[in-house]
Amino acid sequence: MGTVRLCCGVLTLLGCAAFPTRVSGQRAAPPARKTVLFVCEHGTVKSLLAKVLFEEYAQEVGLNVQAVSRGTRPDTAVPPWMLSGLALDHIALGSWRPQLLGAQDLAAASYVVSFDVPSNATAAARVPRTQWDSLPSVTQNYAKGRNAIKARVHQLVDSLKRAEQARRPEPV
Prior knowledge:
The protein is an alpha/beta fold. It has one domain (about 5-15, about 30-165): 3-Layer(aba) Sandwich (Rossmann fold), CATH 3.40.50.2300. The protein has helices at about 5-15, 45-60, 80-90, 105-110, 140-165, and strands at about 20-25, 25, 35-40, 65-70, 110-115, 130. The chain has a four-stranded parallel β-sheet. The longest helix has 25 residues, at about 140-165. It is globular and about 55 Å long. Residues about 1-5 and about 10-25 have low confidence and may be disordered.
């Protein structure tokens, strides 16, 4: 999936968000917090890494979008080598556990990114989707795989942030 599709999807994602409006002198409830759903087969490597890198960078740039990691055939636990890599990056998972991708995840997502899973796994999502397939293996080389995912995550967060800023109303 190309950069053009990613940018169009991001603009669509953020363009759908309405600003609070006044109705009968009352302010409408703010829109629900946006969610980027990351999906890989086991839910414990690429999608998990994307989730934690997304959360970290989104917070750094002030983007109020949450990230979720799911697996199409989730492992029961994060592999020890992955925990070691995350620990070297000063990332602790706490009580986080891998979870199976479900229809409710696709329904709640604002944007879906999948890693090396068949496109039909996320086809039910009615939001922009992109596939980040064939990235370097995190299993074979944690740092190289992490860096490839981090570059994509930063592009996505930056696109979401630009789109958010573009739709803010002009100061009066």
